[in-house]
Amino acid sequence: MVQKEAEGELSQLFENQLYKSISLRRSSHEERILKLKKIREWIKTHQEDIRKALWQDFNKPAPEVDLNEIFPVTSEINHAIKNLKSWMAPKKVSTPLPMIGTSAWIQVEPKGRSLIISPWNFPFNLTIGPLVSAIAAGCTAIIKPSEFSPKTSELIARLIRDLFEEDEIAVCLGEVEVSTELLKLPFDHIFFTGSPTVGKIVMKAAAQHLSSVTLELGGKSPVIIDSSADLKDAAQKIIWGKFVNCGQTCIAPDYILVHDSIKDQFIMQAKIQIQGYYDPSFNGIEKSTDYARIINLKHFQRLQNMLNDALVKGGQIAFGGKTEISSKYFEPTLIAAISSEMSVFKEEIFGPILPILTYNNLQEAIDLINSQPKPLALYFFGTNSSHSKKVMDETSSGNMVINDCVLHFLHNELPFGGVNNSGIGKAHGYHGFLAFSNEKGVLKQRVGYNNVSLLRPPYGIKAKQII
Ligand code: NAD
Question: What positions does the domain Aldehyde dehydrogenase occupy (predicted)?
Answer without folding.
Answer: 24-440
